[in-house]
Write a structure and sequence with these properties.
The complex is a heterodimer of chains A (377) and B (321). Chain A has 377 residues and is of the alpha/beta class. Chain A has helices at 5-12, 22-28, 134-137, 151-160, 177-190, 204-210, 226-233, 237-249, 268-282, 307-319, and strands at residues 18-19, 31-32, 44-45, 49-51, 57-59, 67-68, 79-82, 85-88, 93-94, 96-101, 115-120, 146-148, 165-168, 193-198, 216-220, 253-260, 288-292, 325-328, 338-339, 346-351, 354-358. In chain A, the strands form five sheets. Chain A has a nine-stranded mixed sheet with strand order 1-10-11-13-14-15-16-17-18. A three-stranded antiparallel sheet of chain A has the order 2-12-9, with no helix packed on it. Classes of the chains: A alpha/beta (377), B alpha/beta (321).
Chain lengths: 377, 321
């Protein structure tokens, strides 16, 4: 298999995870080299949009609500107006496919130690200056090498690789929401649990339609300041907060990740407000992961997040009454462990994405029988 | 706005009455702020321009843009013999509303006539497919010139210019020493106008990220990136057929026979002229102004504010041979 530079980077992003074996991939999927023009991409009519006057369309998938003229694309770069009909160009067109531990998402309260067949297409509906996967998310589908992977093929591959979960991740699943939906349907039919890793920047109707199909969702709450969202993300805070509340209301397992970027969103005041909001609006049992930033993409002039900042956030979260506060991208730190809120004993000990010990018994603490919320079976 | 002849412009320049600004970093820093050279070139929608007529129009517009006696002399004032000249054409709208092959080839001839090796004249667009749809023949090596898509060959790291952060096509960042934007005169659904400046969206990897707020300040931010600002020598606009509504795609019924070719060393002035042509036609048809339609070409003011050219209609100087 020959791969281009971006593909190589995508593979490197898998870290300790295993790449779906190339022979298996080639057996189930045909690859499309990065093609210069979007004409060759498979186009399917999008599910969430409305037609406007004079052949224009308005996307109803994410809060950007792009109004798109004929032959133009939305901000995501993967949806195109062709003669007044809006198409997704990435359904079943995965540009990254890996088998990852579920801890990598991170979803710490979902089948610990299990494998998740993780996939992504190109494109994103925001532009985080600190995007860790920008070589996928900030490119259009014709600019990366992709594989034709219809939902059933993807689920077959998951089963062959012993993955009990799927994860739409790496890029931004909102932009391939129809694919997420159809993979989830196929996964549920096959006894595989579908999960999503998202920025939560999505319109309510689209979110509500797909949520019932999912076993869990992890949302990146990038800051608790709208200014940060506008300047660093090119999104908005309020729709993300609304999504988080809808997810809780619909009783889909939710975990939150907050990437702490030095000087931009790591102040004690902001972290305190964020934690207080989570507790008040979502409840104390929603896990919050504070993770470490590393300089990349357009934010290369900042240092990695000091561990002391992460530890401060960890303390603020616990002091605020959140039961499950974790630290990420600091392998070996005690903040990776799940601790029983009832008795304080360590229930799941982790190092990086590895489970060292798991003492949970039927979702409860074996010492004090405290019920630990999550998806355990 | 004033109008004058090429000869009058030459006299003005000779008398020092028109400042030639120096574009820092360029090898041929000839810029006439506000000056747009114009030539008549008429053809009906969907019909090609006679080759001879195309050659004459291109030469006249180019000569008028710098007050030179001939098109070849104008080209010699703008391009050095050892330049590698990239001519970016905007072919998004297909054959009917892309720069005409015959006009582009007329410019190639003028540049070659000025001493630039034809193998170092590169007509390009984002993809081979788009070029072919607009009627161009892919020529990886030439002759009589190279014609290629950038085909996703971008810089490996994004670079920032104002609000944009993009990977630029290596053809622009590395290969070419001189650039020409060869656009058309058309309405744009979001930016108001798509002419010479917005054409540069075609050399970044992520143009879809920069269409909010009427593409402002993004159009100016792309154009002021050193890869473009320091290499840009000329903007040419094919206004034989223009479109006043429904762009950037071709919209039957919205095109009109403007019958003009424009050339300018001032990219903002060229687009200002295009915006005026579009507004005049909209007015004739009883359409609201671009501002009333919610898409004024705000990027012109932004581009002028960052020193890319002249956006003040009072300072626009239209020159005809």
């Amino acid at each position: 298999m020959t791969i281009d530079r971006r593909r190589l980077v995508a593979l490197g992003a898998a870290g300790a995870a295993a790449l779906l074996h190339p022979r298996l991939l080639s057996a189930v999927a045909s690859s499309r080299g990065s093609s210069a023009s979007g004409d060759d991409l498979p186009a399917r009519e999008a599910s969430w949009y409305k037609k406007l006057e004079e052949g224009r369309v308005e996307c109803e998938l994410c809060p950007q609500a792009c109004k798109v003229a004929d032959m133009e694309r939305g901000m995501c770069g993967v949806r195109e107006n062709r003669g007044g009909t809006y198409y997704t160009l990435v359904h079943s067109l995965a540009c990254a496919v890996h088998v990852d531990p579920i801890e990598k998402k991170p979803l710490f309260h979902v089948l610990p130690g299990e494998k998740a067949l993780s996939f992504s297409t190109a494109g994103c509906n925001v532009e985080c200056k600190f995007c860790q996967n920008w070589e996928l998310s900030q490119f259009r589908p014709e600019q990366v090498t992709s594989y034709d992977l219809p939902p059933k093929v993807l689920i077959d591959a998951a089963k062959k690789n012993g993955a009990r979960l799927t994860a739409a991740t790496y890029g931004e699943p909102v932009v391939f929401w129809e694919y997420v939906r159809d993979v989830a349907v196929a996964a549920n039919a096959a006894g595989v649990r579908p999960t999503v890793v998202s920025n939560g920047f999505i319109q309510e109707k689209a979110l509500r339609e797909v949520l019932p199909l999912l076993s869990a969702i992890k949302v990146d709450l990038k800051s608790f300041r709208d200014e940060f969202y506008r300047e660093q993300v090119r999104g908005e805070l309020e729709p993300v907060l609304k999504s988080l509340q809808i997810i809780r209301e619909m009783d889909v397992w939710l975990e939150i990740v907050v990437l702490l970027v030095p000087t931009l969103n790591d102040s004690a005041a902001e972290v305190s407000e964020l934690c207080a909001w989570v507790k008040a609006k979502l409840g104390p049992d929603v896990p919050v992961h504070f993770t470490r930033f590393h300089p990349t993409y357009r934010l290369t002039d900042l240092p990695p997040t000091p561990v002391t900042s992460l530890e401060r956030a960890w303390k603020i979260g616990r002091d605020a009454g959140l039961n499950y506060v974790y630290l990420g991208n600091v392998p070996g730190h005690p903040g990776e462990n799940t601790v029983c809120p009832g008795c304080g004993e360590i229930l799941i000990r982790r190092v990086g994405f590895r489970i060292i010990t798991n003492r949970l018994e039927n979702g409860s603490c074996p010492d004090c029988q405290h019920t630990i919320p999550g998806v355990w079976s | 706005m004033r109008t004058m002849t090429r000869r009058e412009l030459a006299l003005m320049v000779g008398a020092g009455a028109l400042a030639r600004t120096v574009r820092s970093g360029t090898r041929k820093p000839v810029v006439y702020p506000g000056v747009v050279g114009l030539a008549e070139a008429k053809a009906a929608l969907g019909t090609p321009l006679d080759r001879e007529k195309a050659g004459r129009a291109m030469a006249e517009a180019l000569a008028a843009s710098v007050g030179a006696p001939t098109g070849v002399e104008a080209a010699a004032a703008l391009f050095a013999a050892d330049d590698t000249v990239g001519i970016k054409v905007n072919c998004l709208a297909g054959r009917i509303l892309s720069p005409r092959v015959e006009l582009v080839e007329a410019l190639v001839d003028l540049v070659a006539g000025a001493g630039v090796d034809r193998r170092r004249i590169i007509v390009f667009e984002r993809s081979n497919r788009e070029l072919q749809r607009a009627g161009f023949t892919i020529r990886n090596q030439g002759p009589p010139y190279r014609c290629i898509g950038t085909n996703n060959d971008y810089e490996r790291q994004p670079s920032t210019s104002g609000a944009i952060g993009s990977c630029f096509a290596r053809l622009v960042s590395t290969t070419c020493t001189a650039l020409v934007s060869f656009g058309v005169v058309k309405d744009h659904d979001l930016s108001g106008v798509s002419a010479g400046m917005k054409n540069w969206y075609g050399v970044i990897h992520n143009p879809n990220k920069y269409h909010d707020n009427g593409c402002d300040p993004y159009i100016a931010d792309v154009a002021r990136h050193p890869f473009i600002r320091d290499k840009l020598r000329l903007t040419v606009l094919d206004g034989v057929i223009a479109q006043c509504h429904g762009g950037p795609a071709y919209r039957p019924g919205a095109t009109f026979e403007l019958g003009q070719v424009a050339a300018s060393t001032d990219p903002v002035a060229a687009d200002l002229w295009a915006s005026q042509a579009i507004e005049m036609e909209r007015d004739k048809r009883g359409l609201p102004t671009l501002e009333e339609a919610g898409r004024p070409a705000r990027y012109l003011t932004t581009a002028a504010a960052v020193g890319l050219g002249v956006a003040d209609p009072a300072k626009l100087l239209l020159v005809r041979s």
